[in-house]
Each structure stands twice: as structure tokens, then as C-alpha cells.
Design brief:
Blueprint: H1 2-21, H2 24-27, H3 32-68, H4 73-101, E1 112-118, H5 122-142, E2 146-154, E3 160-168, H6 172-176, E4 181-187, E5 198-208, E6 222-227, E7 243-248, E8 253-257, H7 263-289, H8 291-294, E9 306-311, E10 316-319, E11 324-326, H9 329-333, H10 338-356
Parallel strand pairs: 4-9
Antiparallel strand pairs: 1-3, 1-5, 2-3, 4-5, 6-7, 7-8, 9-10, 10-11
């Protein structure tokens, strides 16, 4: 019933907007652009609904034709074939209407800030964090996205204590948003002489990249410190104060950048990350106010939630949120993430569709 009520409301609103936009006074007012956008946004839903209703009408007409053609076996057979084809199409048409009715996440089309941090497990966790970071880099390459490394804190033997990247392209956040959480690895470390399997972890955070319209930052709320950047082991790699640390005083969020030789570039990168973190915090606040809605989504976005295990001895990847297991660990780490991400997206859509009924 809720779905039918929603469809009736959308159809009525589309008709109302069409009539309003046809009014010459509205066409010359400052409301025109806003109303035109709303009308255009509703257009795909109306088109999908029209296609569904046309198919339903055609199905009823074919059923009547079959009844009337009792004496014409050839005509009845043709009508039954057409009706069977149509009935196979109807569920897809219904699903398309329902998907278009789902509330859209305004961040889905945004670029993203990707942060990977080593968790429990010492050096092995840092090596795993580096593996994950490279996995996302390869996935970005496969999708034709731009992957810009913003900061990397390396260990001595190739691991990453933490690494940050800016990922830009089409629907980046929509594809990566379910990656936030704790990723666990089970494998025999190269440094382990006894051949015992160790378990360690890394945390992934995917933040939608904020635009100026999303987050306004008052300069007086910032404390900006500059200092000399240093390399591994604390050795100085720069003789000028090019590293930048920005503290957002109201929230206590601190962002430091030192990878660039230019203080200006480090500050720009730090501000980009700060805006993303503030925007993510704002979204998290809004989500907590809609706690009931979060139960009908895949995962909560909680950074402490264990979401996936990478088991090297078995060549297995398991996503715990949807009980999906793939025995293609090497291909997943090579960036072939679409099968996992598609399954997560489909499950999220199914849960949200169920809440519409």
C-alpha cells in the first residue's frame, strides 16, 4: 500500500509541476530553475511507471484475446507466446520503478577520500594495509578513475601505517561506500619461521569529498601549525617549514600533510581531507537521527565493524555482512572488486525496497 501511495503522490506532483511551469508568471520568476529541476528529477520515475502500466495493459489485452480466440488455435498460441514474454519483463519493469523511488544518497555521485590504516598485528598489519591500498588503486585504474596519493606513512619493510588518496571519477562514492570498516587478514607472515597463520587487521574509511557548498569552515575555527617535514625514522627531508597541521577547534579534528615540498600544496590537501571528515561527521549525525532507516542498509558505516576477511591459505575472501565467499583472493587483491561491490549494492537495494512495501 505504501508503494501505491508513493506512486500516486509522485504522479500528482509531476502533473502539478507541469501545470505550474506552464504558467508565464512562474517562467519568469526565480522559482523556475528549482521547479524545473524537481520536474526533471521526477521524469525518469514517470517514464518507468508509464512503461510498466503500458505492459500491464498489454498483458490484460492479451489475456482477453486468448479467451476470445478459443476457436482459433494459431491466434491463441501467438497471444500466449507474447503474454509469456511480457510476464518475464514485468518484474524488471516493476523493480525499475521501485528502485527509482528509493531515496537517493546525495553523496553517491561525489568523489571520495580513501583512508587505510594498519590496525592490530604490528608489521604484518602494515603490510596488509599496503596490500589493501594497492587493491583500491588497481580497482580505480580498471574503472578509469583518477587515484591521487595524498599521504603515505611507510614502515621500513614496505608496509603502510596509514595512507590517504583522493579518488575521482564517475559514481566513486556509490561504488566504494560499503568498503568502510575493519578488514581482517589471515596468512603466514614472511617473517614467521614456524609457518603459523597470523591474524591482523586494517581499517578502511571512505569519505565523500566535500564541496564548498556542503561544508562552510570559518577561518577563526582553525589553528594552523607549520613545521619541517620528516621522513622514516625522523630524518629531516626538508629544510623549510613546509609541513602543515590543521586543527579544527570546534570538533578537535586534526589533519597533517607533509608529502609535498610546498607549504601551499600541503595546506590545500589538508583542507580537502578536513572538509571530507567534517562532511562525513555531519552525514553520520544525520544517519543517527534516522537510526531505524540504518537497520535496512548493508552495514552501518561504523569504522569498528569487521566487514571482510582475506584468508590466504584458502585463497578465500568472505564479506561477513552478506555471507558472500569467493575463492579468488588473488584476483580480488588485483582490483577485481566488482563482484563483491555489486552484491553489496544489490543487497542494500533489496533491504531498502523491502522497507518501501
Amino acid at each position: 500500500m505504501r508503494l501505491q501511495e508513493t506512486l500516486a503522490r509522485v504522479t500528482a506532483r509531476h502533473q502539478e509541476l507541469g501545470a505550474t511551469l506552464a504558467d508565464p508568471e512562474v517562467a519568469s520568476s526565480n522559482r523556475f530553475a528549482r521547479l524545473s529541476k524537481e520536474y526533471a528529477d521526477l521524469g525518469p520515475i514517470i517514464e518507468a511507471l508509464d512503461a510498466l502500466r503500458a505492459a500491464e495493459t498489454e498483458a490484460r489485452e492479451l489475456e482477453a484475446l486468448i479467451q476470445d480466440a478459443a476457436g482459433d488455435a494459431e491466434m491463441a498460441a501467438m497471444a500466449e507466446d507474447e503474454l509469456a514474454t511480457l510476464r518475464r519483463r514485468l518484474p524488471d519493469l516493476e523493480r525499475r520503478v521501485q528502485l527509482l523511488l528509493l531515496p537517493k544518497d546525495e553523496a553517491d555521485e561525489k568523489n571520495a577520500i580513501l583512508e587505510v590504516r594498519a590496525g592490530t598485528g604490528g608489521e604484518e598489519a602494515a603490510l596488509f594495509a599496503a596490500d589493501l591500498f594497492r587493491m583500491y588503486q588497481r580497482y580505480a585504474e580498471q574503472r578509469g578513475w583518477r587515484f591521487e596519493v595524498m599521504a603515505v606513512n611507510e614502515t621500513g619493510i614496505g608496509g603502510f601505517k596509514e595512507a590517504t588518496a583522493s579518488v575521482s571519477g564517475r559514481n566513486v562514492f556509490a561504488r566504494l561506500k560499503f568498503e568502510s570498516g575493519v578488514h581482517r587478514v589471515q596468512r603466514v607472515p614472511e617473517t614467521e619461521a614456524g609457518g603459523r597463520i597470523h591474524t591482523s587487521a586494517a581499517t578502511v574509511a571512505v569519505l565523500p569529498e566535500a564541496e564548498d557548498v556542503d561544508i562552510q569552515i570559518d577561518e577563526k575555527d582553525l589553528r594552523i601549525d607549520v613545521y619541517r617535514s620528516s621522513g622514516p625514522g625522523g630524518q629531516s627531508v626538508n629544510t623549510t617549514d613546509s609541513a602543515v597541521r590543521i586543527t579544527h577547534l570546534p570538533t578537535g579534528i586534526v589533519v597533517a600533510q607533509q608529502d609535498e615540498k610546498s607549504q601551499h600544496k600541503n595546506r590545500a590537501k589538508a583542507m580537502k581531507i578536513l572538509k571530507a571528515r567534517l562532511y562525513d561527521a555531519e552525514r553520520a549525525r544525520a544517519d543517527s537521527e534516522r537510526a531505524a532507516a540504518r537497520k535496512s542498509q548493508v552495514g552501518s558505516g561504523d569504522r569498528s565493524e569487521r566487514i571482510r576477511t582475506y584468508n590466504f591459505p584458502q585463497g578465500r575472501v568472505t564479506d561477513h555482512r552478506i555471507n558472500l565467499t569467493l575463492y579468488k583472493l588473488d584476483r580480488v587483491l588485483a582490483g577485481e572488486l566488482d563482484e563483491v561491490i555489486d552484491a553489496l549494492t544489490a543487497e542494500d537495494e533489496a533491504l531498502r525496497l523491502a522497507s518501501l512495501q
